[in-house]
Amino acid sequence: MKIFLSVLISLLFTFDILAQEYTISLNGNPQIKSYLKKHPNSEKKYTASKDPLELPFWDDFSDSNMYPNSNLWQDQTAYINNTLAVNPPSIGVATMDAVNSQGNIYENADYNTEFIADSLTSQPINLNYPGNTTIFLSFFYQPQGIGDAPESEDSLFLEFYAPDDGQWNEVWSVAGSDNKDFTFVILAVDEDKYLKNNFQFRFRNYASLGTSTYPSLATNCDFWHIDYVYLNKDRTINDTVFHDIAFNAPLHSLLTNYESVPWKHYKETSSQTLKSDIDIAFKNNDNVSRLVDSLNFILEDLNGSSVNQYWFAGTFTPSPFQQSDITLSGQPFSFPENTNNSSDFKLTARIVTDTYDSAQNNSVSYIQTFKNYYAYDDGSAEAGYGIYGNGTKYGQVALKYAPLKQDYLTGVSMYFTQAFQDASQKYFWIYIWNVDENGLPGDTLKTIEGIRPEYEDELNKFHFYEFEEPIQINEDFFIGWTQTTEDKLNIGFDYNSVNNDKVYYNISGEWIPSSEQGSLMIRPVFGDTQSSVSEISPEELRIYPNPAGNFIHLDFNKNSEKTYSAEIFNLQGKRVFYRQHIEQNTLNIQNLQKGIYFIRISDNQSKTYSSKFIKN
To answer: In this structure, are residues 331 and 275 in contact, taking their beta carbons and an 8 Å threshold?
Structure first.
């Protein structure tokens, strides 16, 4: 990720990286990898069409899934999505970046050197119109969006194919830059060498991975987004208007605060869980005011347990080129209860406009999922998050959740992303904290020790870390981690759902609110099991402060008639501290190195208490 790292890299040449939080682009594209696992033969259908296409050629990518429409396009390295662009003309764009059709960074990629990455190549087209001067190709493009910005040495370029010469010729290009609005381009296709049968055009991009000094920071980068590709005759250079109204942003959850909650939690608290409104976005791409005759919604129960629900949300008259970001109040939907352990519903919005309006971009849908977890994220990682640099060894990150009811927490699901030098060999600890009087992480309720990130290529494939014994959660809590090295962990990060007000990180003993706009992809998982449940016992050994400085305080059910000894062990199991008789509840640990330690307190009747702590 070269946006965030531009300042960071300048520091690397003189000093070690200062401790900080970061977001970093993905090493690959998990959505594409997931699609290929489910559709292993998808690439075989991308071949040249038998007969050339006839004009007009039009694609706004609103009805494609993951890959370009094979009836129109010959390759599949561009990624079709509706989350990475900002205010496109219509929902769905073709994104070009530094990863191939398999979702991996190109094998020919290199540091500090531009390489040709993606291609978006049309099927052969019949342009056998000798001498015609009315054929034009137009499109919209945007650099960056919510991804990584292409640098000035990177570029997006367009080539035309001359069938008789068998040669591709560059006809347009633009240098990389930071985020900007979608820009319209229109080009004449009037040279004789192109006015042939089997004419083609293709978009390509140059990308670069950045510095080789720190290769672990090299990830997917240099995003370009393309929309509204239109080739036709009987046009002029001034044919810049599209008589089209289109949805241009996805729908979101109908739940207050969350994308998903456990189904049994919703059923007990439905009145306080549903939003009272729905956000919807569409754009009038015409140069005159247009009538949206009706905006309709339908909620379908995908489990078949209830009838469909409908809502007529009104009529609208957007002004020329108006972007309409509308909040509709008083939404009437509910999620009917059933006896299932989970449930799924499909919310669809449709606009009815004039008959000449493109119908494929007049509908947008969202799947509302209820399973056994809470989620702030929408399941799509656009980046990786973590803390990184000097001082982050034993640093901590915490994410706050407010459960709708008391229940038993059975584990934590986490989504990890990768960079060139992943953190798969770096141990970390999962933590569950209560909430202190200041609304920050307080006492430790549960930990899972010495675990490693587990990488999953599938979309929405989180790795589940299960507790040996569930714990009862009665109120708000934090989940997060303590890392054991300064290496990044790269937790999945969703840019489309902003919840950083619930995220804190601790590098030097103080919890600091996160400034990274988005949602951490960490989900608490709740179960029905109520046996073998461990709640925090008043006899458990507590250590504070934790992380600790030169002293730790021991809090346990001490009996004045007994004598106690203390032993401290490092992660390798070596005893590094021993005191035969503890008279005070405070231990001086200033001689210990920074690290993670286990402590065991034993009385003279063979009863032991154990815990762990971090020495800063």
So the answer is: yes
Which structural domain range is residue 390 located in?
A: 383-527
Task: Check residue 535 and give its pLDDT.
Answer: 37
Structure tokens at 214: 């720190």
Count Cα atoms within 13 angstroms, Cβ side, for 200.
24
CA distance 39 to 513: 42
CATH of the domain at 141: 2.60.120.260
> Does residue 392 share a domain with residue 364?
no
> With the C-alpha atoms ordered 505, 507, 512, 515, is the resulting torsion angle positive or negative?
negative
Domain containing 347 — which CATH number? 2.60.40
Q: Are residues 479 and 390 in the same domain?
A: yes
Task: State the Cα–Cα distance between residues 581 and 565, nearest whole angstrom.
Answer: 5
What's the distance, Cα to Cα, between the start and end of the chain in Å?
30
Report residue 145 as tokens. Answer: 């969006």
Q: Are residues 562 and 443 in the same domain?
A: no
* Residues with Cβ within 8 Å of residue 608, at least 6 apart in sequence: 600, 601, 602
Task: In whole angstroms, give the CA distance from residue 551 to residue 548.
Answer: 7
In this structure, what DSSP letter does residue 44 have?
G
Of 232, 258, 281, the residue at which a domain comes to its end is 232
Q: Rounded to an integer, what distance in angstroms lies between the CA atom of residue 278 and that of residue 250?
A: 12
Rounded CA separation 371/401 (Å): 16
Are 409 and 467 in contact by the 8 Å Cβ rule? The answer is yes
- Provide the 3-class DSSP secondary structure of residue 502: helix
Q: Does residue 299 lie within any of the structural domains?
A: yes
Q: Nearest 5 degrees, angle CA 363-CA 275-CA 461?
A: 70
d(CA 250, CA 365): 7
Residues 274 and 187 in one domain: no
Phi-psi group of 256: left, alpha or beta (phi > 0 → left; psi -120 to 50 → alpha; rest → beta): beta
Q: Which residues of the chain have pLDDT under 70?
A: 1-19, 22-49, 101-105, 109-112, 210-220, 418-425, 455-461, 528-540, 571-573, 606
CA distances (Å), origin 596, targets 1, 424, 483, 554, 592: 31, 19, 10, 16, 10
List for the chain the helix, strand, coil content (%; round to 5). 5, 40, 50
Residue with tokens 């190195």: 593
Q: Of 527, 561, 594, which residue sits at a domain end? A: 527
Q: Are 10 and 33 in contact (CB under 8 A)?
A: no
Which of 378, 375, 462, 465 shows the shortest CA–CA distance to 416? 462
Same domain, 601 and 472: no
Does pTM top 0.85 for this prediction?
no
Listed in sequence order, the residues at least 6 apart from 40 whose beta carbon sits closer than 8 Å to its beta carbon are: none
102: left (phi over 0), alpha (psi -120 to 50) or beta: alpha
